Amino acid sequence: MSLLNVQHLTTEFHTQDGIVHAVNDVSFSVNRGELVALVGESGCGKTVSSLSIMRLIPEPPGKITSGSILFEGKDLLKLTKDEMRRVRGSKISMIFQEPMTSLNPVLTIGRQLTEALILHKGMDKKAAEAEAVDLLNKVGIPQAEKRIKSYPHHFSGGMRQRVMIAMAISCQPKLVIADEPTTAVDVTIQAQLLELLKSIIRDLNSSLILITHNLGVVARYAHRVYVMYAGRVVEHGTAAEIFHNPLHPYTAGLLGSVPRLDEPRKLRLRSIEGQPPDLISPPKGCAFAARCAYRREGRCETLEFEMVEAIPGHFTSCLVAFEGETPWRKTMS
């Protein structure tokens, strides 16, 4: 049984201009001990999907209008606020995208680390502080006994992200959601943080949802991948299948925009022409059709959206692919 099973999730935001369909009928699952990646352009619905799982969508203007989020067989959308508060942090935790805005600037690192330990594990202050020091040591922060009394602005970006990881694992959750966990740090620190996160998740026997637009990170760490576009999942499968045999032209476009070591250095990267659609009035049929060079005129724009298992374990919403053709692979080779 899956640890997390999201089915037909729809999240909307009511604005002055109209209803923004940020997440539109999204389904995905995470198995125990698995690392699953959500990838796609900015604004495709990755972060809103994760905030919906955590029940952190601000109401108003946002609202989860339909679907189910089954965690260990229980629908999180049916829990009361108090019940969800007991799940959040203890069983499901989240590493937010920007640590400087996620950490409280007027509270010490120790105060912020001990809060969850006292609330969820029932520790007294002294025991919680000792555990907080151990957590800082575990994520590689030197002189943890002294640094626990510091404030967020005393830390570098990489150190703050390590503190966020420590907070996320403090109660040994079964699922960790990492939203762009390496955005604010340089490449060398990215590798350190990701290896640290991977080893901690393995030691805890937890699962991880990695939200990122860095396909290099996905190729190295993810077991399965869900590709999102315009608030929908347009393709999903194993990481190996997604990278070696993309079944959606949008996925192929993402892969084509990334430098590859096995290609000549002078080869120009390919971009995806056009802009994502307006989510206030999303188009009928395939949302990517207007930007797609392989669309079937008169069909892709009107065909009802549907995920099809084109290859065992590999799903796509692309009409061309489930008819047995992938002409975009010629441009990738």
From TrEMBL:
InterPro entries xrefs: AAA+_ATPase, ABC_Ni/Peptide_Import, ABC_transporter-like_ATP-bd, ABC_transporter-like_CS, Oligopep_ABC_C, P-loop_NTPase
Keyword Membrane in record: yes
Family annotation (Pfam families): ABC_tran, oligo_HPY
Domain ABC transporter: 4-255
Record's subcellular location: Cell membrane
GO annotation, biological process: peptide transport
Protein's recorded name: Oligopeptide/dipeptide ABC transporter, ATP-binding protein, C-terminal domain
Organism (species): Dehalogenimonas alkenigignens
